[in-house]
């Protein structure tokens, strides 16, 4: 009787301490994460996906520029980028001049651009279209689970206390990460993700100052499985925090990251990857692409921020001999209209481009050049369904079941060499 009461008091104390122990920024991972112990994939590949979301609708035509197309220059008398300014890829295509770093990756065979990506009957609402990209379903088929969340949910073998995915930044967590049972943390700062000294001491005391290898299997009656489960997950949280603390302390890089929001986020991702977490997916965002007016300067600055941050990130991973483990996937909820508007900007469109970075890719341009004389309500027609890109990522990079993750069968696009 005495041992049973003691175990119950210990369980209650640990439950309270566990909630405090996994604080993330100003939010916290709720106790439901202990019910799952943040299931991570048992895949031997250890491949990591980093998703960069360009929010607002990135202008595909001024990202991958058809500089020799008369229809392009006619539709954009003020916004078109000429042959003398683009970073030429071939006789028809060039990159925006702000993408010099990305162009270096492309020329080195470590990047690719997918043209004409979208979906049938395009929706031009930011919220509706982003939800379609996040869930792979339209509003009348709406689900509260995202494509990444469903993929992670299907990887059901617990591996450690590491989160299977992380969202970095101050924005609301993307629906793409939502799943039925898993709790995904939003990390606002690495310091916030670590156990503070007082919390570590409390948890250690509650566990009776047992050695780490013994904390996962505390002495308890046979029917105290919940207590043992909580002990195990708390120990895993401590172990993950210790790895992150060590990674921050030991992390060194000769790479100069840009002083930008995206640069800071991707530097955090690099630090987390070097900490040897079993986390499979990292998700970051760059906002501001809703360029209805005075687009030229703002779009140039956004693409420069993206290019500089991603280039620094890939160089950093290469320095740490981790670049072969990581694929960076960049998307936006739609492209912009072909014709510029009266405010020297562009309005909501349809098909766009996706960009990939990594050392195992099929490099260069994928898909066919857009036909600017064959439009759908003033927009580019999509050639490639974005879900075929997701299917290729899930099947050939993450080693998962694409049909389960996407909720339907799509032919995986061949993205990797």
TrEMBL record:
PANTHER family: BLL7424 PROTEIN (PTHR43737), DUF1501 DOMAIN-CONTAINING PROTEIN (PTHR43737:SF1). InterPro entries: DUF1501 (IPR010869), TAT_signal (IPR006311). It holds the Pfam family DUF1501. Signal peptide: none annotated. This is DUF1501 domain-containing protein. PROSITE patterns: TAT.
């Amino acid at each position: 009787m005495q041992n049973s009461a003691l175990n119950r008091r210990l369980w209650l104390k640990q439950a309270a301490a566990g909630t405090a122990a996994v604080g993330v920024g100003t939010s916290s991972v709720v106790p439901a994460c202990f019910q799952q112990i943040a299931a991570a994939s048992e895949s031997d590949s250890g491949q990591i996906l980093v998703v960069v979301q360009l929010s607002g609708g990135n202008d595909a035509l001024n990202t991958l520029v058809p500089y020799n197309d008369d229809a392009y220059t006619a539709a954009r008398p003020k916004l078109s980028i000429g042959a003398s300014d683009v970073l030429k890829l071939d006789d028809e295509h060039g990159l925006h001049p702000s993408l010099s770093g990305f162009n270096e990756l492309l020329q080195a065979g470590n990047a690719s651009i997918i043209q004409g990506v979208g979906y049938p009957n395009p929706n031009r609402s930011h919220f509706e279209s982003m939800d379609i990209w996040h869930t792979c379903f339209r509003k009348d088929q709406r689900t509260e689970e995202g494509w990444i969340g469903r993929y992670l949910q299907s990887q059901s073998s617990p591996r450690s206390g590491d989160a299977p995915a992380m969202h970095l930044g101050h924005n609301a967590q993307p629906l793409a990460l939502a799943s039925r049972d898993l709790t995904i943390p939003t990390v606002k700062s690495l310091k916030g993700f670590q156990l503070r000294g007082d919390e570590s001491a409390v948890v250690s005391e509650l566990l009776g100052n047992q050695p780490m290898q013994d904390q996962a299997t505390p002495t308890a009656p046979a029917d105290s499985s919940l207590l043992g489960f909580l002990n195990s997950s708390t120990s895993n949280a401590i172990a993950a925090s210790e790895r992150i603390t060590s990674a921050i302390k030991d992390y060194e890089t000769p790479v100069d990251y840009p002083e930008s929001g995206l640069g800071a986020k991707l530097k955090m991702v690099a630090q987390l990857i070097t900490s040897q977490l079993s986390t499979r997916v990292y998700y970051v965002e760059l906002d501001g692409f809703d360029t209805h007016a005075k687009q030229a300067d703002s779009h140039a600055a956004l693409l420069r921020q993206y290019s500089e941050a991603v280039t620094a990130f890939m160089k950093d991973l290469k320095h740490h001999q981790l670049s072969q483990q990581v694929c960076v996937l960049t998307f936006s909820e739609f492209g912009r209209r072909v014709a510029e508007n009266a405010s020297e900007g562009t309005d909501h469109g349809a098909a766009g481009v996706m960009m990939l970075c990594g050392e195992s890719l099929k490099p260069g341009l994928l898909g066919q050049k857009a036909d600017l004389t064959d439009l759908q309500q003033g927009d580019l027609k999509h050639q490639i369904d974005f879900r075929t890109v997701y299917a290729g990522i899930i099947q050939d990079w993450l080693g998962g079941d694409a049909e389960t993750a996407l909720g339907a069968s799509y032919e995986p696009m061949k993205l990797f060499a």
